[in-house]
Write a structure and sequence with these properties.
Order of helices and strands: HHHHHH
Largest sheet: none
Structural class: mainly alpha
Radius of gyration: 17 Å
Number of helices: 6
Distance between the termini: 59 Å
Shape: globular
Strand content: under 5%
Number of strands: 0
Helix content: 55-70%
């Protein structure tokens, strides 16, 4: 009997990480809308700040790593958008803007990018951002 060793995933399909993360963003939209309806404009502002901070921190980190902007744009896979949305959804609607922004930056830079980026993190970046915000603020 012959064994074949290969790395994950063993099943291949046309879905990429970018497409999967876009589907996750779409799946999170009803919860975001309900949160904004129940908790008001503060929840929308919190979500926007968390998402923008997460995306900008990933782009700035990659640019500081001397990756050309064109490559950063082509390889953008929406994982930081999902992380920002999850950090924003875990924060209070009336949280201070800087607490939410720093939580998102910490989640992306420390929990995701320092460990190698998408798929190489040892913990969930959004939960690390939540814990950082809880402990710090």
């Amino acid at each position: 009997m012959q064994y074949v060793y290969s790395s994950s995933p063993q099943i291949r399909c046309s879905l990429t990480t970018r497409k999967i993360m876009m589907h996750v963003c779409i799946a999170l939209l009803p919860s975001c809308v309900c949160g904004c309806i129940f908790f008001g404009w503060g929840a929308l502002l919190t979500l926007a700040i968390a998402t923008i901070a997460a995306v900008l921190s990933e782009v700035v980190y990659r640019l500081c790593s001397r990756v050309p902007f064109k490559t950063v744009w082509q390889q953008f896979d929406f994982t930081s958008v999902v992380t920002g949305l999850l950090v924003g959804m875990n924060a209070y609607a009336d949280s201070k803007w800087y607490a939410v922004a720093l939580s998102s930056v910490f989640a992306v830079v420390v929990a995701k990018m320092i460990f190698g980026g998408t798929g190489k993190n040892i913990v969930n970046p959004a939960i690390v951002g939540r814990i950082f915000g809880f402990i710090s603020f």
